[in-house]
């Protein structure tokens, strides 16, 4: 490999549990969250980022191999590393999440019957809180 083509691998900071049962639980939960994150890529109403971050957290406590794979992943790696190092989220991700939450909330207001409008307002309140939280985080 030439000098300018050397691969950079981020070394994870893991805190593995000593209990084999707890490690297997975290490995299983990590895969569950990872699969839900992949499904979230395909379904517009399901988020991707929180599930990928949960998978990274579970694998950091259970499997150095899976955690290392995720933080060096072609698509998810930078996002996970930015979160682990600085709790930072890219600006495009903040904007996309806010637009998707707004669109989902607007659809609820449009589609729900009048007697269920309280649910649309509850979702709007939660989504507003999430958007405020996201934009208070540093940009990656």
TrEMBL record:
This protein's major location comes to membrane
Q: What is this protein called?
A: Inner membrane protein
Name the residues that span the membrane: 21-43, 91-110, 116-135
Recorded topology in the membrane: Multi-pass membrane protein
Question: Where does the source fall among the domains of life?
Answer: Bacteria
Which UniProt keywords are listed?
Cell inner membrane, Cell membrane, Membrane, Transmembrane, Transmembrane helix
Q: Does the keyword Methyltransferase apply?
A: no
| Cellular component, GO annotation | plasma membrane
Location comes to: Cell inner membrane
């Amino acid at each position: 490999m030439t000098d300018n083509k050397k691969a950079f691998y981020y070394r994870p900071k893991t805190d593995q549990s000593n209990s084999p049962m707890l490690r297997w639980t975290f490995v299983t939960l990590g895969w569950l969250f990872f699969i839900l994150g992949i499904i979230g890529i395909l379904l517009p109403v399901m988020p991707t980022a929180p599930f990928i971050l949960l998978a990274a957290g579970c694998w950091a406590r259970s499997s150095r191999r899976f955690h290392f794979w995720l933080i060096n992943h072609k698509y998810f790696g930078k996002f996970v590393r930015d979160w682990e190092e600085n709790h930072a989220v890219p600006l495009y991700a903040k904007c996309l999440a806010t637009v998707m939450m707004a669109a989902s909330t607007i659809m609820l207001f449009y589609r729900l019957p009048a007697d269920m409008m309280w649910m649309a307002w509850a979702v709007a309140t939660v989504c507003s809180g999430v958007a405020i939280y996201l934009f208070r985080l540093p940009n990656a």
